Structures are given as C-alpha cells and as structure tokens.
Amino acid sequence: MSQEVTDADFEAEVLKHDKPVLVDFWAPWCGPCRQVGPIVDQIGEENADKLKVVKLNTDDNMKTAAEYGITGIPAMYVFKDGKVVKEIVGARPKPALEEELAEFIG
C-alpha cells in the first residue's frame, strides 16, 4: 500500500523529496480510483528506487487538491523538484500507466 499524504505533510513528502513523486489523487467513493489504486501501488513497489508513490484523499485534503486544480479523479501527477511535470487523469490499465510514466521509471 502506498503512503498516504495530507495537506500538512504534502510539502515535506512530495515537493521537497529528492526523486520524482507520483501523487495519486483519489477518494473512497470513486470507483475508478479503487480500480487504479492497486495498479499504482504495484508500479510504486516495482520502481521504488526511481519513483516515490503516495496517495492523497481529496475529500480529506481539499486544500492541496484545490491548489493543484484537481477536478476529476483519479488524477495522478508526477512532481519533480517541487513542480508538476506530468498529469495523468482517469483510470488506465497497468501497461498504459507504465507507458505514461516511462520517462520516470524506464
């Protein structure tokens, strides 16, 4: 299971991290989020040396979700050096997600 982050620790865990961080913006009521969640966890486990993977519950952390303009979930953003460098919106099968993330995990 990927690490949960909150409004309170987002800066320390994501923006100031030394390697790219994939943030999975999700909510418990979101069916597609629950489908893609295990895939995101797998990618994180398989590529832990290159990419940190965390989850942010948008219901509980509205400040951060609003700050990044998250209107549709699931949304997966890759942050590098404190900036969004990739946005993936919507559930994808694992091969498609790996392809989208190839520059970070390849």
Write up this protein.
The chain is of the alpha/beta class. It has one domain: Glutaredoxin, CATH 3.40.30. It has helices at 10-15, 31-46, 62-67, 94-100, 102-105, and strands at 3-4, 21-26, 52-57, 75-80, 83-89. The longest helix has 16 residues, at 31-46. The radius of gyration is 12 Å and the shape is globular. The model has no long low-confidence stretch (mean pLDDT 96).
Structural features:
single chain; 106 residues; alpha/beta; Glutaredoxin; five-stranded mixed beta sheet; 5 helices
Number of helices: 5
Q: Approximately how much beta-strand content do the residues carry?
A: 25-35%
Order of helices and strands: EHEHEHEEHH
CATH fold naming: Glutaredoxin
Shape descriptor:
globular
Helix content: 25-40%
How many DSSP-defined strands?
5
Mean pLDDT level: 96
Assigned CATH architecture: 3-Layer(aba) Sandwich
Query: Given the helix and strand composition, which structural class is it?
Result: alpha/beta
By CATH, the superfamily comes out as Glutaredoxin
Strand order of the largest sheet: 1-3-2-4-5
Main sheet makeup: 5 strands, mixed
Distance between the termini: 22 Å
Number of domains: 1
Uncertain stretches of 5 or more adjacent residues = none
**CATH domain class:** Alpha Beta
Q: Over all CA atoms, what is the radius of gyration?
A: 12 Å
